[in-house]
């Protein structure tokens, strides 16, 4: 059984910031807010900073 998360300003849902986070969906308050966050990741709204990866040079003749 999961411990209840105390309702205070530090444990508000990170998406809507209106409701306390629940143990089942922590750090979100509901499945809806969790899905909103997932959608943002999938659309590329969030990014982890880093250097651009260099692709290896390929010779088009080697593919045949």
Features:
64 residues; mainly alpha; 1 helix; zinc; Znf_NHR/GATA; metal-binding; DNA topoisomerase type II (double strand cut, ATP-hydrolyzing) inhibitor activity
Description of the structure:
The chain has 64 residues and is mainly alpha-helical. The chain has one helix at residues 31-43. The radius of gyration is 20 Å and the shape is elongated. The chain starts with 30 loop residues before the first helix and ends in a 21-residue tail after the last helix. The model has no long low-confidence stretch (mean pLDDT 83).
Short description:
With 64 residues, this protein is mainly α. The chain contains one helix and no strands.
Helix content: 10-25%
Strand content: under 5%
Q: How many helix segments?
A: 1
> pLDDT under 50 segments (min length 5)?
none
Span of the ends, CA to CA: 59 Å
Question: What summary fits the major beta sheet?
Answer: none
- Strand runs, count: 0
Q: Mind telling me the C-alpha Rg?
A: 20 Å
Structural class: mainly alpha
What sort of overall outline do the alpha carbons produce when their principal axes are compared? elongated
Q: Can you write the helix and strand succession as a string?
A: H
Mean pLDDT: 83
GO molecular function: DNA topoisomerase type II (double strand cut, ATP-hydrolyzing) inhibitor activity; zinc ion binding
Organism: Paremcibacter congregatus
Pfam family, one: YacG
Binding site for Zn(2+): 13, 16, 29, 33
